[in-house]
């Protein structure tokens, strides 16, 4: 499997604070990878560095075979990386439909780009709420909208920071089912979340980040099912 994302020995942080240090990871074409670790260990910073929202001060970031270490975020997005950010960042004053159309493109140059009908098939609730304002949506609907918006950019890799944070169990399951469907269609997924069993269905390989470094990588299910491993890397 060739790497769609290749992070090689990267340092990055905020101002003089180095948050990730000598971090290396890969996400293959079509692969599902879970990024896990305790709070504040550097998961969001890792994602921000891949997307060019945080600058690597050392090492190299490659996306789709290109060196993007110093590339602007919009250039990286155009290589086919779609972000579903923490907090969702829905435009509150726009309708669902406007939210979806405001940013639509086909950056990943997919043979069959996503359209409005496709995303409403994936999330029928969005289809029912096309004329509602973003501010009127529930948390789960906002997350569906954020995923749909990212899909309309035609990504080859979907990156989700806190995929199901704060959502009711039934809504979480809808999100996981949709993500499993996306994987089955060949989309690569890099996902941060804490529900390991659900994650395993979308992201069979897990990468544990500890103090800005990769502390462990292996099967997500192994991490979920082995109490010692779980306590070592994720226990509080
Ligand atoms: N904008 C910022 N400026 C300065 N420090 C920051 C900033 N954002 C995050 N940090 C610090 O960087 C460290 C790693 O944060 P990061 O958000 O990457 O961790 P995380 O693993 O995603 O954690 P969480 O699960 O809590 O979101 C933390 O110590 C945090 O306080």
- Please, how many domains? 1
Question: Which value, in Å, is the CA radius of gyration?
Answer: 17 Å
Helix content: 25-40%
- Topology pattern, helix = H, strand = E: EEEHEEHEHHHHEHEHEEHH
Poorly predicted spans: none
CATH fold category name: Rossmann fold
Total DSSP helices: 10
The small molecules bound here are: adenosine-5'-triphosphate
* Mean pLDDT over the full residue set: 92
Overall CATH architecture = 3-Layer(aba) Sandwich
Structural class based on helices, strands and sheet pairing: alpha/beta
How are the strands of the largest sheet arranged? 6-7-8-3-9-10
CATH superfamily label: P-loop containing nucleotide triphosphate hydrolases
Shape: globular
Instruction: Give the termini separation.
Output: 35 Å
Provide the β-strand percentage band: 25-35%
Give the C-level CATH assignment.
Answer: Alpha Beta
DSSP E strands, number: 10
Summary?
The protein has 236 residues and is an alpha/beta fold. The chain contains ten helices and ten strands.
What descriptive keywords fit this protein?
single chain; 236 residues; alpha/beta; 6-stranded mixed β-sheet; 10 helices; globular; binds adenosine-5'-triphosphate; ABC_transporter-like_ATP-bd
């Amino acid at each position: 499997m060739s790497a769609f994302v290749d992070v090689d020995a990267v340092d990055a942080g905020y101002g003089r604070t180095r948050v990730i240090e000598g971090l290396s990871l890969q996400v293959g074409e079509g692969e599902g990878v879970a990024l896990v670790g305790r709070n504040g260990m550097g998961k969001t910073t890792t994602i921000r560095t891949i997307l060019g929202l945080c600058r690597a001060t050392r090492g190299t970031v490659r996306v789709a075979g290109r060196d993007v270490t110093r590339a602007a975020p919009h250039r990286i997005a155009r290589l086919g990386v779609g972000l579903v950010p923490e907090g969702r960042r829905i435009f509150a004053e726009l309708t669902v439909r406007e939210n979806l159309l405001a940013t639509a493109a086909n950056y990943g140059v997919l043979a069959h780009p996503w359209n409005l009908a496709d995303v409403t098939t994936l999330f029928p609730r969005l289809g029912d709420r096309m004329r509602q304002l973003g501010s009127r949506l529930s948390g789960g609907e906002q997350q569906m909208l954020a995923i749909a918006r990212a899909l309309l950019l035609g990504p080859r890799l979907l990156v989700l920071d806190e995929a199901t944070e704060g959502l009711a169990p039934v809504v979480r399951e809808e999100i996981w089912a949709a993500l499993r469907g996306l994987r089955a269609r060949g989309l690569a997924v890099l996902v941060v979340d804490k529900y390991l069993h659900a994650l395993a269905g979308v992201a069979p390989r897990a990468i544990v980040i500890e103090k800005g470094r990769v502390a462990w990588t292996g099967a997500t299910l192994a991490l979920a099912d082995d109490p010692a491993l779980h306590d070592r890397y994720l226990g509080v």
